[in-house]
Amino acid sequence: MKQQPQLAAMIKGQVFDGFLLTRSAAQKTSSNGSKYLDMTLCDISTEVNAKMWDGLTPPPAVATVLRVRGMMLEYNGRPQLRVDKMRPATEADDYDMQQLAPCAPDSPEQMRGEIDARIAQMADPQLQALVQRRLEACGEKLRYYPAASKLHHAERSGLLHHTSTMLRMAAHVCEVYPQLDADLLAAGVILHDLCKIDEMASDEIGMVSDYTAEGLLIGHLVAGVAEIDRLGKELGVKQELLMMVEHMILSHHDLPEYGSPKPPMFPEAEVLHVLDLLDARMFEMTRALKNAQPGGFTERIWSLERRLYRRKEVPARENQE
Question: How many angstroms separate the CA atoms of 53 and 57, rounded?
């Protein structure tokens, strides 16, 4: 079915009939003893408190896509959705996940396929085994985990999006600079952010609720080095190769104020840092410019410490993309 108006645009008295995502849900008891569902439902535009008063429907799990029918009301001056009917979405339902939450533009299967194909091309069996085993250890979480809580690639499957984009860039850089070890660079790209899965607490929507204790106390750079060191010794990876992979993870933020105790100290580590920074900034710029008027400026973007200008006249080639 065609997606209904986004929640943020709905007004009091408007009927909603479409798909929403569950952010939270619990069965509660009112003052007269009757049971009801108290929920937070969302789409790409906003989230809203929702109530279902039948007292019979069990609370849906977080990150469940629901087919919802109800009416937008108001309670204490805030929007509230009265849900009359709802059910979990099925495979037969026609809904667009990107209308419900920020999502990577490609499917997790496609992006993971790109990464697996690159690993299969690695010539060094030790490096190949190290990357493959580390990737497998991430399990199912890799399908939906974001790469950040608020900034670059803060979206469902954002970690795969960030990694696969960097892999494509790395391949082109190695064509221009053939002296680079293409497999070592690809390994750094694939491994550098994997411990973000342990650093952040994310639901299956790709929304981060908080940083974990490990994330706050250790961080994904140090945790990533520790995990690679453990796995590399278990696999018998050559000492120099293991040390270089660990250095790439440790140095990919470049400066101490951004978390790296060492700057990149060989070419592949430097390229990894530059690709990481470029991909992060391009993502944030693209997202910010979508909300700017042609010929106008964005609000100041604190992570970039600047405002951005949106070009007024776009070449036809870009219009067609």
Answer: 9
Q: Are strands 47-52 and 78-88 parallel, antiparallel or unpaired?
A: parallel
Element (H, E) at 210: strand 208-211
How many whole angstroms separate alpha carbon 130 and alpha carbon 120?
A: 12
**Token pair of 15 as six digits:** 């009927």
Instruction: Name 67's bridge partners.
Output: 19, 87
Cα dist from 222 to 118, 137, 218, whole Å? 25, 17, 6
What are the pLDDT tens digits along the chain (321 aa)? 556 558 888 999 999 999 999 988 999 998 888 999 999 998 988 889 999 998 888 999 888 999 999 999 999 888 999 999 999 999 899 888 888 888 899 999 999 999 999 999 999 999 999 999 999 999 999 999 999 988 889 889 999 999 999 999 999 999 999 999 999 999 999 999 999 999 999 988 888 888 999 999 999 999 999 999 999 999 999 999 999 999 999 999 998 888 899 999 999 999 999 999 999 999 999 888 887 889 999 988 888 889 999 998 878 765 444
* 92: Cα separation from own chain's centroid: 26
Half-sphere exposure of 189 (CA within 13 A, CB side): 32
Distance CA 31, CA 19 (A): 30
Tell which residue, 78, 84, 68, has the closest CA to residue 20: 68
Instruction: Please state the pTM of the whole predicted model.
Output: 0.81
**Which among 260, 224, 262 has a CA at the least distance from the CA of 242?**
224
